[in-house]
Triosephosphate isomerase (Nakamurella flava), 269 residues
Amino acid sequence: MPRFTIGSSLKMYFGHTRTLQWTRAVADICADHPMTRDGTVQFFVIPTFPSIPAVFAAADPAGIAVGGQDLHWDDEGPWTGEVSGAELAEIGCSIVEVGHAERRAHFGETDEIVARKTHAALRNSLAPVLCIGEPDRGSPDSAVQFCLDQLESALTPARDAGTAGRLIVAYEPIWAIGAPQPASPDHVRAVCSALRSHLSGDDLLDAGVIYGGSAGPGLLPQIADDVDGMFLGRFAHDPAAVGRILDEVADITGAGNAPADDAGVTVTS
Ligand SMILES: O=C[C@H](O)COP(=O)(O)O
């Protein structure tokens, strides 16, 4: 597992041309940056479905993982308009977003549907970016209880079937999505550390917990000890923000002060 998993869902913000411009700019940054080159950071991008093949071609050479924003709970069948995890895996995706708050709110995704989709991702060897988070601002303790219930609900079918795999839990308090600023570092740390403890040593799942909700440059240094990465939205629309976050990773890990070799790769030994 990389020390940090950091990525962005482009939601429906960009058309195809801008998606590719953004991806190429981010791929250039990741191809050059010591923190992505040495595997300290696994960067991922989640575009709209039609852009996935072109994004894959632009992102894969830079080591960027690509995923879908949703999947169906079945692997095939009469589901007009839907996309299966089997097909996402077939075209090269390694991750898929499941249960984002916007899908739960606007597309009727219940906890049961999210659970079936989580299992569909895992059985197709896709790492679910499983989005959980409390609806209203409150205490960290109440958020932890809400999120643990949501998490275990989402994992029930996979646990029942004994399906193993990599899991990326995206802790996204709903009240912090689309907001001017993220949840406070203390809140993020309390909830994410509880989720990490809960999943640590899981028999089936190799799990990490990342934070999303108005995340951007400046946040990771305040939460790094208690998270496995960040899920970026609007504050990564400027590709330069990705470079700033990777620079912050270098500072966090101490690599920022290390000398670089001729190829520009930081020498840490
Ligand atoms: O998918 C990303 C999250 O929903 C966060 O989006 P945001 O940073 O624009 O609030």
Notes: The longest helix spans residues 140-161. The chain is about 40% helix and 15% strand. Confidence is low (pLDDT under 50) at residues 258-269. Residues 9, 172, 177-178, 212-215, 231, 233-235 surround glyceraldehyde-3-phosphate (CB under 6 Å).
